[in-house]
Structures are given as structure tokens and as C-alpha cells.
Amino acid sequence: MYRMLAAVLLATTAGCGAAAAADPAHPVVVELFQSQGCSSCPPANASLNAIADRADVLALSFAVTYWDQLGWKDIFGKPAYTGRQWDYAHAGGRSNVATPQMIVDGRVVINGGNLQEDVAAIRQAARGASGPAIAAAGGKVTIGRAPSRSPATVWLVRYDPRTLNVPIRAGENGGRTLPHKNIVRSIDALGAWNGAPATFAIGASPNPVYRTAILVQQGKGGAIIAAAKI
Q1: What does DSSP assign to residue 26?
Q2: Among 69, 218, 219, 216, which residue's Cα sits nearest to residue 228?
Q3: Alpha-carbon span 182 to 60, nearest angstrom
Q4: Secondary structure element (H or E) that encloses residue 152, with its range
Q5: Contact present, 155 and 217 (Cβ < 8 Å)
Q6: 203 Ramachandran zone, left/alpha/beta (phi>0; psi -120 to 50)
Q7: CA-CA distance, 86 to 211, in Å (whole number)?
Q8: How far apart are the first and last CA of the chain?
Q9: How far apart, in whole angstroms, are the C-alpha atoms of residue 107 and residue 126?
Q10: Which residue in 150, 163, 173, 129 sits closest to 221, CA to CA?
Q11: What's the pLDDT tens digit per position in 105-147?
Q12: Which pLDDT does position 22 carry in this prediction?
């Protein structure tokens, strides 16, 4: 199934020259909010898995916690990830949250279960080379100078790029084995960026398998104005 989705993605991008939404230096951030206890989430998980290896996309899977009391506790879920989804809801004037939900560059909100719709949203939300440059060296990251209308939050994200197959023992997906990719293991605010160059310590990853990304975001639930895989 997942090979088929990847093939659809390749066919979609091959058929439209604009489908490569960004270059690897300016990846489009795709955040999926999902839960292993949600029977509607597997198609969105499959879509995220299919785009996870695109160089011009930073795909991140956040496991929320509000399904945990309904028969199966998501093994990757954290309250901070539920809080991030609520930050997006509040910033967008929405009074509730749901799964699955895919938020593209903090700008476009979709279900995430339709791969062609997801690819179209990536094209729509792409910010190009706008925003500050992000450079990392020596355990530090520097956000460069760029115009800024309001303070932005600088986020440090650690995520697991492996495909992790999780047997689900109970709940709505009981009896299934769900493959997850690019599961977020931590997200921490490093500080604020106001348009002038700013440097933050990021330290070493707690696990050599994890990969690291930096997001620069308007407020807490606004648009992503810069991102980098480092």
C-alpha cells in the first residue's frame, strides 16, 4: 500500500513542474496530528510516510493524547503535541481539534488522508526562499537577519526518521500494525527571533538515530517563516 502511495506521489510530481514546492534549503513543513487510537488516522499516516523522504519537505508526525483514554494509549503521545495542535487551533480561530489533521507551513489545514490533496497543499503553502537563513555549527544554530513584523518562536525538533511498525493491541485500530515515520520525539522553544541575527545553543541529540530540525514560526501557532533540517 505504501509503495503504491509513493508511486502516486512520484507520478503527481512528474506531471507538474511546480510540484517541487521548495528546494532542500527551504523545506515546506508538514505537521500531521494523529493518534494510534484513531481509526481515521492510518490513511493520513500513509500519506505522511509517502512524502517523508522528499528533500523539499520536512514531514513531522505528532502523536496527540486525547484518544488515550479510549482503549489504547499512543506510545509516542505527549501532552506537548496536543498543546501544539491547540496552539494552531487558537491562532486560526478554531474552537476544537480533531485527528487526523495536517497543517502545512502553518498556513493550510487539511485532513491529510488524500495524498494528491496533500501534495497540492504543499505547493500552495510553499514560502520559497523568503525568511531568515538558518545555519548550524558547533552545537549552536544561528537565525539570520530578515524583515520581521512581530517576534517569532524558534523551535528545536528531534524526530525519528525510521519506519516504526507498531502492533496495536486494543482500541479502534486493535489488531492492526501501523507504520510510523518521522515521529516527533521532542519539540522545545529555544527563544524569540525579532529580525536581527540570533544564536541559540542546541546541544547534542539524546539519540544518535534522531534527526534535528529548526522551525521559525510567527508566535506559537502562526505561519512557519523558515525551517531547516540540520
Answers
A1: S
A2: 216
A3: 5
A4: strand 152-160
A5: yes
A6: left
A7: 25
A8: 30
A9: 9
A10: 150
A11: 999 999 999 999 999 999 999 998 889 999 999 999 999 999 9
A12: 59
